[in-house]
Every structure is written in C-alpha cells, then in structure tokens.
Amino acid sequence: MSTAAPKNLVYKFTNDCSDPELFAKWAPEIEKYRAALAANTLDEYKSEVPEFADDAVFNAVAYLYDNKLLSEDEFKLTDTPATELVSLMGKGLLTAVEVLKAFAHRAVICQQFTAFAMEFFIGEGLKRAAELDAEFAKTGKLTGPLHGIPISLKEQIGHAGKITNGGWVGWLTNIPKEDAVTVTVLRNLGAVFYVRTNQPQSLMHLDSNNNIVGRSRNPYNLKLTPGGSSGGEGACVSFGASPLGVGTDIGGSIRAPAAFSGCWGLRPSTRRISTLGGVSSGKGQESVPSVAGPLARDLDDVDLFMKAYINDGKPWDYDPWCIPVPWRSLEKPDPKQITVAIMYDDGLVRPHAPIARGLKHVAEKLTSAGVKVVEFDPIRTKEAYETVNKMYSCDGNFFQKDMVKPSGEPLLPLTEWALSFGDGDKSYSVVDNRFLNVTRDSLRKDYLDYFVQNKVDFIISPTYVGTAPVGAYDGVEGPYYWGYTSLWNILDLPTLVFPTGLHQDPSIDVAEKIEPRSELEKIEHDKYIPANFRDAPINLQLTARRYFDEETVAFGKVLRDILELKH
Amino acid sequence: MSTAAPKNLVYKFTNDCSDPELFAKWAPEIEKYRAALAANTLDEYKSEVPEFADDAVFNAVAYLYDNKLLSEDEFKLTDTPATELVSLMGKGLLTAVEVLKAFAHRAVICQQFTAFAMEFFIGEGLKRAAELDAEFAKTGKLTGPLHGIPISLKEQIGHAGKITNGGWVGWLTNIPKEDAVTVTVLRNLGAVFYVRTNQPQSLMHLDSNNNIVGRSRNPYNLKLTPGGSSGGEGACVSFGASPLGVGTDIGGSIRAPAAFSGCWGLRPSTRRISTLGGVSSGKGQESVPSVAGPLARDLDDVDLFMKAYINDGKPWDYDPWCIPVPWRSLEKPDPKQITVAIMYDDGLVRPHAPIARGLKHVAEKLTSAGVKVVEFDPIRTKEAYETVNKMYSCDGNFFQKDMVKPSGEPLLPLTEWALSFGDGDKSYSVVDNRFLNVTRDSLRKDYLDYFVQNKVDFIISPTYVGTAPVGAYDGVEGPYYWGYTSLWNILDLPTLVFPTGLHQDPSIDVAEKIEPRSELEKIEHDKYIPANFRDAPINLQLTARRYFDEETVAFGKVLRDILELKH
C-alpha cells in the first residue's frame, strides 16, 4: 500500500507549510470536533450494521434495502422525490418533522457505512421543521418552494454559528457570524438543514479525505471513494440520506461525486448559484471560477432546486456575482430534433471498460430513439488540460499553503498531487495569468464554433476515466486525472452528470490491455482491477453551450426516458 | 502651454518603449493613412466652414444650424431618430441611400470641424445601402431591425480588410481577416458602415489624441476635448454625423465622450455587447473588463440598439463571453415609485460649478415630479479609485508597452498619466491581483447592499468633475481624474449618460474658490476658467444595479420627460 503520489509526476512543489510540532497542538481541536460528530450521530437513529473491513467490496445500498434497515414508511418517504414531498406537505398529507425524521434515520445509517458527514445537527433541524409545520398549520401556506425539504450542505459553505473548516484543520476555530448566501437563500425557501458533509483537505481531490474526520466511502462499494471534493454530498444523496444536496465544483467536484456514488449532479454555468460566504482558497480567482450546484437522486429535484433557488431565491439581491436571469422551465425536446456528440476518448487518457460500455450503451439507446448521434473529435483537450492545471496553481500555491499554515497539518498524497498541477510552486505574474486567460478564451471560442457550426446540441463524455476508483489501497490511491471534468470548467459549460442505469460488473467489464500514450494514462489504467469495482455506478456527463443550463436539464429528462431510469 | 503631465503625480513609470529612430521609419505609414483619410473625406460632401484657431471657443453645432450647412431635407432626415428612420424605410418612404447620403454630408462637415474620424468609406457604405434598397424593393421586407441605419464604429473594433490600429502607430499595418463580432452582428441586422472614429493612443485617455491623425475636438466648443477614449464617437453622434455609434468603456470611455459632446451613452453591464475582435491592450484582463455600448442623440435609439443587438443579433452565437439573456422591453416606471440618490461629491474631487448646477437642477426636477430624492453618501470611493487604478496597470504596463514597441512612437502626456496609474511599472503577481479582486468584490457587495437595503433604484452622479475640459492648452491639458466614471466600471454597474438640457454659461457658472483636499483636486479645479467652457453640454450619469440595464434605459425615458428634453 502506497500513500504517496507518484514521485515522478510530482515535480514542482515543496512542502514548506507542514509543521508537525504546530500540528500536534491542534489535536484537542480535532478530537473535540470528532467527538461532537460522534455525539451528534444520534444513537436513536442508528441501525445494526455489519462489521466491514476498511477496504471491503461491500454494497451498502443493497444492504440497506435487503435488510430493511428502515421501516416501510421510511423507505417510501425517503424514496420520494423532493418535488413530491413538497406537494404532499402542501396538501397537509405529510409534515416536515416526519420528513426530516425519516431522512435523519437514513442519514445516520449512511454515516455508519460511509462516514460522509462532518457535522450533524438533527435536533436543530427538527426544531426548524416543527416551526414550519406550525406555520403551515396556522396559515395553510407553504413557506416556500422548498418547504420542509431536508437539504445537505457541503461543509465549506459558511454557516452562521457553526465551525466552517473547508477540510483544513487550521479552520477548526472559524465560526462565521453570517450565513453564506446559499444558506440564506435556501432557508428563505423553506429548506431544513441537519447535516454538513465531508470534503478533502485542499478541496482539490476527486476524493474526500482530510485530517479532521478522515475519509468517506462510496455507498455502492465501500472500498471505493465517493469522489470529491463534494464527496460527502455524493455519498449522502446517492444513499438517500438527503433528497437534495449542495456541492461546489472547480474541476469536477460536483460531478465526480455524483458520478462515483451514482446520482444526478449539475455543474451550472457560473453566476447562477452563489458561492459567496464560506471557506476556500479561491478568493479573487476568476480564470476558472468555482460554481455551486445541486445533487439529487431524481432529476426533477435538480430542476426544482434551480428554479426555486433562482426564481424565488433571487440570489442577486445578496451576491453581486449572480446574474438576475430567471430559470426557464423548458419542455422536453423532441429527440428527433437533437444532435448529440459522444466523446469516447479525450485523446489523453482513455476510459476503462465500464465507462466505454456506458458510452456505447447510451449511444445505442439514443440512436434507437431517433437522436442524431455523432462522434466527438476532441478539440485541443491537451491544451485545455494543461491550461486549467496552470490556472489552479498559478498563485504559486500561495492560497492553499495559506490555508494549511495555521495548523501545519501534514499534506495528504492527493493534496501533494494538486499542489503539483501546472507549474506547482512557481508564482505567475499578472501577464502570465492573462496569457492563460487568452488561451482559455480561444478554447471557448473553438468549442462554441463547434456547437454552432455543426448544429450539435450536446456532448456526452466520461466524467472520469473509470467508475469511482479505490481510495488509498493497492498502491494506486485516488483519482489523479481530472481532464474529463476540468475541461468543462475551463470552458464554463453547464454539465449534468446522469446515471446510465448500469453498474460495473467484473464479469463483463474485463480489463483491456492498452498501449499507454503517457505515464498518466498508464497509472490510471493500471488501477483498473475489475474485482475491486463491483456494483460501482456507471454515470456520464451531458454538456451544452454556456448558459444553456435549462436545455441541459430538459434533455436530461429525455435521457431518463430513453434509458428507462426510474423516476 | 505645458505638454507634460504633472511630474509630481507621475511616479512609477519609465518610458522604455519609445524609440525615435524606429518611429521615424513609420512616417510613411502615418502619411499614407492620413492621406487616405483626407482623400476619403469626400469633397462633394464638404461645406464652407470658417477658419478657426486650434484653441477657439467655437460652437460648431450652432454654426451648422445657423448657417444652414445642410438642406432642409438633410436636416430633417439627420435629425430623425434611427427608430423612426427604420420605420420610414419599412414603409418605403425613404431609401437607405438617401439616409446615408444625408448623414455622410453631415459627417464630412463634422470632420471639417472636429476631426472626429480615422477612416471614411462612404462609397462602400453607399454600395451596401443600394443593396439593401434593392433587396427591399424585391422582397418588401427589411433586412433587420437596423436596416439602412448608418452606424459609426470606434476604430479599434476589428474590421475585415481595413487597417485596425486602436490608436497605436505600430498597428497601422494590422489588417484583420475577420470582422469583430459587433461588426458581424450589426451588419446582419442591416446596419450600414461608412466611418470609423478617433481614439487616443493607449485607449486610456478621457481625450482623443494620437500620433496617427492627431486630436479630435468637441462639436459644441472646439477648444474642448470630445472626451475619450471613444471621443470620435462622442463628437460624431452629438453633431448628428451618425444616429448611432458604438464605443467601448473600461474607465469612462463611452460615458466621458457622451457627456462631453452632449449625447446619450450607455455603458451596459459586462457580457451583453461583444468586445471580441479588434485591437486593445486588455486581452485576458478580467478584473475590470472593457464593455461596448451605444451612443445616440435619442434615447429610443439606445433602446433600439440594445434590443436589436441582443435579441436579434444573438451575439452569444459568436462570442462565448456574451450571455444569452434577452433585452427586456420595459415600460417607463411611475416616478412616484422611484428613489434616486444623488452623488454631489465623491469625497475626492468635487465637481465644477456647471456640474453642481446640473445635479441641483435634476434633483429639483425629479422632486417636483414625485421621485423620492436622497443624497448619496459615497461608499469607499477612495478605495475604489485606488483599486481600479491598480487594476489598470497591474501587468506592470506590459501590454500597453507591447502595443507601443513596434513603432517606438513617443508617448503623449495622457498616456504617461495612464501608465502611472496604481503602481505604474510594478509588475503584480497573481496573488496581488487576486487581493485586488477581493477588494473589488467586497466593494460590489457594499454597493449592492446599499441599493437593496435602502430601496434605492438609481444613483445620479457627475460623469466627470466638469463639463468637457480643454485639450492641451493653458498648462492644464486633458482630464486626469476618472474617479466618477471608473467607480461604475469596477462595480460593473450599468450606467447611462444623459443630457440635462443645460449648457455651461460663463456668466452663471462662475469659478468657486475651494480648499483642495488633494493635489489632484487642486489640479482639476485650477483648470476651470469659465470663459473656456462656453456652451459645453452638462450631462450626468444614471446608474442602477448590475444587469438592470433595461431599468436604467426605462428610467432614462422618465428623466427625458421630466427634464423636458427634446425627443
């Protein structure tokens, strides 16, 4: 078992921010934080779960259903989309307290399996739910379009009065006085909060491990990562511990978790959902801005979230970054009028067998449904990958190190990997940064021209080389290659992760022998040992033109029909 | 007469890009360019204009009417808003050729007085107009919502097959193969091009002087500058040489020209009008992005331009920077529902007498009409001014110098001034730039909170300390202080320059004795010698929340009514 990133790919980074002596002083803070998490993972919601090894191939979702860890009513309620829950509450057929209790039960079980949470506050949630119920009883009116809906939040999103650490030990003493805009907006809409979810140190892994609460696991296969950086969200939503969760994404951090754990996840275009308030290393960085967006088990709930957040929440009244543009409710388009291009390989790191199977499956289904399907010939993907990686680190890792320094915490292997992106510690000048932006803008123009001139509506691509990879085992820890997701970040194109309905099957998805085109491709391929990946969801990405977020979701519904996914 | 900027304010800039020997080699290119301009200022459109000294206080607009330099029909036609011209052409009551001929006549006279143009191509425009007429005769249909409308373009906007120099001598050999997006979009809409307008060296003066065709003059008072950097546009549109012009604005470059020469001018929010294609030093700079927008003598034409450009032109099909958000046609709001805050003084450099009179006049008129008028207490204006100035030069002047180097041309005093903004030649790191952005974002948040929490709809402010200042005379050349315009650039708020209907009058607008709060305030106030400014238009700025561009234009129409401006 290796714990370090491959040294030969880590070339321009010096760890001058870790300090074991200083870190030792933070032990009490970490201990206190863990103790609070343990204490607030309320015993009354726990179930008997089997012992499992830390690297067990074990499907917790199947176990949940097979062993009926919830009551019939709880299953029914937590398997109901938020859209319908609101409607039932509006008719007085369900209370917010009932809803939260069921999800809290499922969430605590999820925690027992996946360690997806950083903080539980179920009591506070129940109090809020009771207030909503009282208000409804008095007025007969819902507080808002998300009335009584339990929403899980990535921990980095600032929460007034609660530690907000973003995965950095040194922020364990940070307690914001004000809520992040997203918390304010969702609360105004009637949402109920009860859990904040795990994320990696640096917020720059497609994995979720940190020195505070450790790593989270994938609910469909506990040996695998739930992805990152919104990996707690991916595990939470996919397990059904919340009907809706909020993640953030600067390189794949909503989409890898949604894809790895097996739910829907939307990376909207920039400026639609607020990222103001909270902890991150990205302040003032606008070459490739982070976005926030929803994860859900039902696509209608993605739509509900976007519409409610934007049209009723009016985030532009709180955050000048957000554009006051309504969410357009679109009908599903006629498949016969749509052209989809499929990216089978980005030319840099080809997908593993299960992803290749997923792409082929979707292409066939789309073709049968009358969609025009063409092959996408990747455009300047190498340049895009190299440019976006330089953008991540062009501050010479100043802000990341600045987040580490207060605690001196040791760096995890994937943090070392992230700090080695681009030119690592090399501090860029403003002029260098502008040239990166010029390259980016030229890439955006080329992709726009591709869409417009070829009348292509959508591109479907892998979210990652494989399904969820293993965590820190077998010498191949974590996912290194982000090219499939970060491409859409540098282009700022709305991208929806969707389930194909397929899961990895070691007997079908055998390892292919490939002639690697690069060391990175070799590393990513060597880690595909089929038996490790059993039951891992096979999800893909759907991408459209910038600000065609609504078109993306509307066609997602067509995909749902065509792929016969459960509603 | 001084030709240099005040040395004690120019502190962090070294001229290492001018090279007299190299520059001498460019004399033939400059000569050729000037000769083409002279030759294409067609004699057949010229009128007898009086001799005037280069520093004459002389009202060319009054002269035009008083001496009937156009025929009655030409006056009628060129004084008709574009909105109405299109309608008349749509009814077959007017041809595009007739329209262009009248404007070309007025434009050539404008050139005789103000030297506003860099390039005329009236013949090409007439050919295009004839084609539009032929198409209309055949189909009975207009080509688009700007069918047959002569539109003047700031020269920096790339034009296929035409020299595009942006005011830099070294770009006199630059002939783009492709049109800028704005040229493509406007042509698709039916616009007719015939003239490209003057701008300053560096595109960073609120004046329009360069080493190619020299300086332009203000049509209402030839002693004064028409402003800059879209100064040629300001002179052109205000004189009636075109009904609509396109400028760009990174610190006041649409608004100073509109205000100084006396027309309407809209600085839209970013991403609505394309700036893709053309010559500038701003590539990849997104801390305070440049925007493009219209200038017009009639506000309805500003509305027409925005609506046609956005809704019919769909710039997002060509430029990924543009957001696909329709222009909303709004009714004029009820004045009694509106709150306007007036900024009488930004706390740094107080306005001259005529501007103070204009603000008071507008406040009184608004109050009489039932608008709630409050006083705006400036928010962090010093920080905003210092931050935006650092943003302009934080590349250590790399890109500006890069534009100068090919020709080695001498720097004009206002270029020296611009290159001394912020920390001048000091090259910032990415980290420094991000901290500037953080300050900017916090300013944006404070201004947003001001609007929302005080229920203020609009802020009215000076466009500049005074009316148009003199050019390079009396030891006080040019406008130095940009704080009143650049404030809205760093905040990215839509801002409409509007006429108050008033003009400077030396007998009313006497010089006030002030106790200067800074050297800059002293310099700006010392230059107010009332007799120099006779007849200068008194225009102001109307600012709203980000992306409330439509609300700004709609309330502009209310202002027009209240101020009893001619339609």
Textual characterization of the structure:
Two copies of one chain form a homodimer. With 567 residues, the first copy, chain A, is α/β, with parallel strands linked by helices. Chain A has one domain: Amidase signature (AS) domain (Amidase signature (AS) enzymes, Alpha-Beta Complex). Chain A contains 19 helices and eleven strands. The first copy, chain A, has helices at 20-25, 27-40, 60-66, 72-78, 82-90, 96-114, 122-139, 181-188, 231-239, 255-261, 299-312, 353-368, 381-393, 398-404, 413-419, 430-453, 483-491, 519-526, 549-562; strands at 117-120, 151-154, 195-197, 244-249, 264-267, 291-296, 339-342, 372-375, 458-462, 495-503, 537-543. In chain A, α9 (231-239) runs parallel beside α10 (255-261) and α11 packs antiparallel against α19. The two termini of chain A are 41 Å apart. Chains A and B meet through α16 of A and α16 of B.
